[in-house]
Amino acid sequence: MSEPIKTLPLVFDEPRGRKKPPRHLADLTSPERKALLEEQGLPGFRAKQLSMHYFGRLVDDPEQMTDLPAAQRAELVEALLPTLMTPLRTMEADKGTTRKTLWKLFDGALVESVLMRYPDRATVCVSSQAGCGMACPFCATGQGGLQRNMSTAEIVEQVVAGARSMTRGEVPGGPGRVSNVVFMGMGEPLANYKAVIGAVRRLVDPSPDGLGMSARGITVSTVGLVNRIDQLTEEGIPVTLALSLHAPDDELRNELVPINTRWSVAETVEAAWNYARVTKRRVSIEYAMMRGINDQAHRADLLGDLLRSYGDWGWVHVNLIPLNEVPGSQFTRSSDEDTDEFVRRLEAKGVPTTIRDTRGSEIDAACGQLAATEA
């Protein structure tokens, strides 16, 4: 490389002293919701009705909750359904089938989520942190630093909002449902482990306790927090693990993904392999193609040899991502020729490989472009 890549210091913990988001039923299990109402002198059985409105009927207007007594309705809603986030702006691309929403959280922090409708599915890409502390230099989110972790309910609300839009026919194609969730928005999901796992559980819990989604439709991405990958392996929730690798060698990955200075490529891939071994779920290796940085033929061979060293039992799939360029960045997208050669070399090693169909780049809604600015 012609010049060193500049990175920011790694940040693992959010600033202290911040006020926590309001407690919401999505933060709580069904028994906890009931207990909270009873602590406040309200009928505990109303928790199930509130949960049905939120998760089952996707209602956001208390006036539509007609099975709640009018005299208690406001108090019940305030107890378990406080407002968590306010939409500031929604931008559309792909003839309206890609929608990026900018949200303002209760404390003024800004995050973004993206709803993408395809012919056979609808996916919500959610943020798990306001900002990100991983400092990957090619990612717009990482350059802004970490503001704070999001709560379980704040994460879930992004999915519920997308589900409402689909149910109400606000996305071209008629009424539908959200089938997939990817934790690939702002933040490093495994750096906010407790809230993210809580959100995953709310997504898969059957209605009215949750949205009743299939765990197989949920993808959790990480840049490689090995201790948390190991923890996820033992959770017993068969989500798809996506490892943002971006380089097959430590020298380069130390610069592109600074967390690599704590856990090496070998340690990171070993943890991903073990996740696949235990859960029987194929791992996705995410690899953003950057011109002249990580797209050389010898790195394709190195990546192929690394992944095949764990056997050929179908544990892994490589997802090449045409770099979503950020204005002012030194990083640019690889040529189609170099990307095709990368694919050819990986497939020659027996590694299944695809090129991601990037959507929303014109509204800065693609991977690595979420910066959550009001401008």
UniProtKB/TrEMBL annotation:
InterPro entries referenced in this protein's UniProt entry, alphabetically: Aldolase_TIM (IPR013785), Methyltransferase_A (IPR040072), RNA_MTrfase_RlmN (IPR027492), rRNA_lsu_MTrfase_RlmN/Cfr (IPR004383), rSAM (IPR007197), rSAM_sf (IPR058240)
UniProt catalytic activity: adenosine(37) in tRNA + 2 reduced [2Fe-2S]-[ferredoxin] + 2 S-adenosyl-L-methionine = 2-methyladenosine(37) in tRNA + 5'-deoxyadenosine + L-methionine + 2 oxidized [2Fe-2S]-[ferredoxin] + S-adenosyl-L-homocysteine; adenosine(2503) in 23S rRNA + 2 reduced [2Fe-2S]-[ferredoxin] + 2 S-adenosyl-L-methionine = 2-methyladenosine(2503) in 23S rRNA + 5'-deoxyadenosine + L-methionine + 2 oxidized [2Fe-2S]-[ferredoxin] + S-adenosyl-L-homocysteine
Residues the record lists as binding S-adenosyl-L-methionine: 187-188, 221, 244-246, 324
Record-linked Pfam families: Radical_SAM
All residue ranges annotated as the Radical SAM core domain in the record: 118-361
CDD domains in the cross-refs: Radical_SAM
The name this protein goes by in its record: Probable dual-specificity RNA methyltransferase RlmN
Name of the gene this protein is made from: rlmN
Active site: 112, 367
Gene3D superfamilies: 1.10.150.530, Aldolase class I
Gene Ontology cellular-component annotations: cytoplasm
Binding site for [4Fe-4S] cluster: 132, 136, 139
Protein's GO biological process: rRNA base methylation; tRNA methylation
Leftover remarks: Reaction proceeds by a ping-pong mechanism involving intermediate methylation of a conserved cysteine residue.
Transmembrane segments: none
PANTHER family: 23S RRNA METHYLTRANSFERASE (PTHR30544), RADICAL SAM CORE DOMAIN-CONTAINING PROTEIN (PTHR30544:SF5)
Annotated family: Belongs to the radical SAM superfamily. RlmN family.
Cofactor note: Binds 1 [4Fe-4S] cluster. The cluster is coordinated with 3 cysteines and an exchangeable S-adenosyl-L-methionine.
EC primary class: transferase
Molecular function terms, GO-annotated: 4 iron, 4 sulfur cluster binding; metal ion binding; rRNA (adenine(2503)-C2-)-methyltransferase activity; rRNA binding; tRNA (adenine(37)-C2)-methyltransferase activity; tRNA binding
Principal subcellular localisation of the protein: cytoplasm
Keyword set, alphabetical order: 4Fe-4S, Cytoplasm, Disulfide bond, Iron, Iron-sulfur, Metal-binding, Methyltransferase, rRNA processing, S-adenosyl-L-methionine, Transferase, tRNA processing
Residue ranges of the region described as Disordered: 1-25
Cofactor(s) recorded in Swiss-Prot or TrEMBL: [4Fe-4S] cluster
HAMAP family per the UniProt record, alphabetical: RNA_methyltr_RlmN
Function: Specifically methylates position 2 of adenine 2503 in 23S rRNA and position 2 of adenine 37 in tRNAs.
